[in-house]
Design brief:
Elements lengths: L1 H26 L4 H16 L3 H7 L4 E10 L5 E10 L7 E8 L4 H17 L5 E8 L7 H15 L8 E5 L5 H15 L23 H17 L7 E5 L3 H12 L3 E7 L2 E4 L6 H11 L9 E3 L1 H5 L5 E4 L18 E3 L8 H9 L3 E3 L1 H4 L2 H15 L5 H26 L3 H20 L4
Parallel strand pairs: 3-4, 3-5, 6-7, 6-10, 10-11, 11-12
Antiparallel strand pairs: 1-2, 2-4, 7-8, 8-9
Bound molecules: nicotinamide-adenine-dinucleotide.
């Protein structure tokens, strides 16, 4: 009885914190698409981009908004709102994840789609950027309801997705299971299996080895590259990770495997801190058993805000947008920030961090390990020929290191920050494609 009461109280507390966090995510920072356009404008100014090309690239090409019914367990029907946005189609089919989160907005999906375009360009992947989202809190739905929602949403957006046109993948609130439902729904409509329509699927239906942890692996690789460049001994480096989902948890685990000391991690329920270092495999097991990090033994509870201000070598924001703002950037004590999340830093915070000499590895470089292995998965599906995990990881290492070096050399030769350098590389690549194709008709 006592245990049941305790569990109920914990659940209530988590729900209360989730509500606060949801509110912060919706009301908290600037509109992400404005941020994305401001970041793009800096590169467009630097490159003295042709005005017509600038106009094309600073807007998204296609938006599909859908309001669709879902059968709920109690027999009722609920209407959900979803989006699929394609930012740019000049370099190939579009690619980008599907987000299930209560704070999803069209402006957020537009920003995420634009960021995907730049990411694919830096890594020379033959894709344009896209993103999708449904306004839903997946933790409030049963598995059947989630499957119903996913299958109906897939049907709605199958107008524009497809292995040759637009290929979704997991993002916040979605995973390999979601991708399996999407792949199956699309295939049922076609009458045959179409594994290449989504990436991030289970290996049993054409997924790629190494895809689940690819984004975290990429974060680990660029973190080590950044430390090497800054001549910081990785065996003495400490790390704090915000967000303990796919990206955050895998980043923490792989960085710890490399001998870095992960002292703090957090999720939607709050953070945990141990200056002596957390045992990441134990922490993963704890989260599997308890659902979140709250109450982790041998660690001090801290808030998500406190985590961002810890005296660590490396800070990895791996949750949502607008976490580092003009309100807290001045208090950041990390030497290096590696953006596992998309859009965690506002332009105002960027200025403060640059002024304070913090080395920021921007999202469009740092978290591209996921889309890179998604590209490998798509290629394997199209060729019906699969690679080993070692092959995947070796190719990922090579591409991550080369892209980091390309951006770093651009930074050093133009004396700009890493974000602007990444945008210079990306915008140049995409505008070359736009110019080559010219404007039709
Ligand atoms: P996820 O759903 O697996 O995990 C998200 C984590 O963030 C969870 O631990 C959740 O509890 C936590 N969280 C949610 N809201 C929070 C808040 N307000 N404060 C603190 N923690 C919060 O999602 P993910 O796939 O790990 O994605 C995380 C970020 O990485 C997103 O910005 C996403 O766009 C980006 N990203 C993901 C991938 C990928 O392959 N999954 C690739 C590139 C970038």
């Amino acid at each position: 009885m006592q245990q049941a009461e305790q569990a109920e109280q914990t659940e209530e507390a988590v729900e209360a914190e989730q509500a606060t966090l949801r509110q912060r995510a919706t009301v908290g920072g600037p509109d992400p698409f404005t941020t994305a356009q401001r970041q793009f404008d800096r590169a467009a100014d630097f490159l003295n981009l042709d005005p017509a090309v600038r106009l094309i690239l600073r807007n998204v090409q296609r938006i599909l908004q859908v309001d669709f019914p879902v059968h709920m367990d109690d027999g009722s029907i609920q209407i959900y709102k979803g989006y699929r946005v394609q930012h740019n189609l000049h370099r190939g089919p579009t690619k980008g994840g599907i987000r299930y989160h209560p704070a999803v907005t069209l402006e957020e999906v537009k920003a995420l789609a634009m960021w995907m375009t730049w990411k694919c360009a830096i890594f020379n992947l033959p894709f344009g950027g896209a993103k999708g989202g449904v306004v839903v809190d997946p933790s409030q739905l049963s598995k059947d309801e989630l499957e119903n929602l996913t299958r109906r949403f897939t049907t709605e957006i199958s107008l524009i997705i497809g292995p040759e046109s637009d290929i979704p993948a997991p993002d916040v609130g979605t995973n390999a299971e979601t991708m399996a439902w999407m792949m199956d729904t699309y295939s049922m409509h076609k009458g045959y299996s179409v594994p290449a329509v989504v990436t991030g699927k289970p290996v049993s239906i054409g997924g790629s080895e190494g895809r689940t942890e690819a984004t975290g692996r990429g974060v680990m690789i660029v973190t080590l590259e950044a430390l090497k460049h800054l001549e910081i001994d990785q065996s003495k480096a400490t790390v704090a990770v915000q967000g303990f989902g796919n990206v955050g948890a895998n980043s923490a685990r792989l960085l710890a495997d490399q001998g870095l000391k992960v002292v703090a991690v957090s999720d939607v329920s709050g953070g945990v801190y141990n200056p002596q270092g957390l045992n990441i495999p134990d922490t993963l097991r704890y989260v599997q058993e308890h659902g979140n990090l709250r109450g982790l033994p041998q660690a001090k509870p801290i808030s998500n805000d406190e985590l961002l201000e810890l005296p660590v070598t490396v800070l990895v924001p791996a949750a949502l947008e607008n976490q580092l703002t003009d309100q807290n950037a001045e208090k950041v004590r990390a030497k290096v920030i590696v953006e596992g999340a998309n859009g965690p830093t506002t332009p105002e915070a960027d200025e403060i961090l640059n002024r304070n000499g913090v080395f920021v590895v921007p999202d469009i470089l740092a978290n591209a390990g996921g889309v890179t292995v998604s590209y490998f998965e798509w290629v394997q599906d199209l060729q019906h020929f699969f690679w080993s995990e070692d092959e995947i990881n070796e190719r990922l290492h090579r591409i991550m290191r080369n892209s980091f070096q390309r951006v770093l050399q651009t930074k050093l030769s133009h004396d700009v920050d890493m974000r602007l350098a990444a945008y210079i590389v990306a915008v140049r690549t995409v505008s070359d494609a736009t110019n080559a194709r010219s404007i039709y008709p």
